[in-house]
Amino acid sequence: MKEVTDMTANLVNDTLKLDALKSFQKKQPSAKEKHIIGYATGVFDLFHVGHLNVLKVAKENCDFLIAGVSVDSLVEDYKGKKPVIPFEERIEIVRAIKYVDIAVPQINMDKMEAWAKYRFNKIFLGEEWRGTEIWDKWERVFRPKEVEICYVAKVFHVTSSSIAAIIVERFDSLNGRK
What H or E segment, with its residue span, contains residue 22? Predict the structure, then answer.
């Protein structure tokens, strides 16, 4: 029951943060400054230092960071597999990261729909996406809206998939399968 109470409290807290974001967006910055709202999305499964680095770099380059956490059904649709960690737990992990101002569910891959809702100025994602067909398309779509696509260099060579592979390998080794 405590978990449900905690999740409800976090939803209320996120609602307040969304209200704060709307207030932040309405403030008129001086001519010298511009409020930068960042948006970084991911599955954030088996959270690791690579995820942390993207969020850290994103926060260093914006005033307010929104982290979109992919819901389980979305991950299953586009990756063809279920996340190891359920959505409710992954979003709690991301909410707890000091660089994240608000964590929101990412229910689809439509970045324009997210932009219409959050009005971010920058999108942050891993360097491995640069030059891909989908992100070349998003660069063209967002250019007239003055949204900058920021590719974060991969400084740690770890992925959730590589962690999962190591776990399977060690499990098999311990059980005499390899």
Answer: helix 2-26
Residues counted in the chain: 178
Domains of the chain: 35-174 (3.40.50.620)
What would the pLDDT profile of 25-84 be if each residue is shown by its tens digit? Answer: 666 555 456 789 999 999 999 888 888 999 999 999 999 999 999 999 999 998 898 999
Q: Which of 119, 134, 129, 118 has the alpha carbon at shortest distance from 152?
A: 129
Compute the half-sphere exposure of residue 22: CA atoms within 13 Å on the CB side of its CA.
8
Place of tokens 């932040």: 24
What are the φ/ψ torsions at residue 105 (nearest 5 degrees)?
-70, 135
Dihedral, 155, 54, 109, 95 alpha carbons, nearest 10: 140
Burial of 32 by CB count in 10 Å (0-12 exposed, 13-18 middle, 19+ buried)?
Answer: exposed
Condensed to tens digits (0 to 9), the pLDDT of residues 77-115 reads: 988 989 999 999 999 999 999 999 999 999 999 999 999
Local structure of 157: helix, strand or coil: coil
CA-CA distance, 5 to 100, in Å (whole number)? 22
Q: In this model, does residue 4 exceed pLDDT 50? A: no
Give the predicted TM-score (pTM) of the model: 0.77
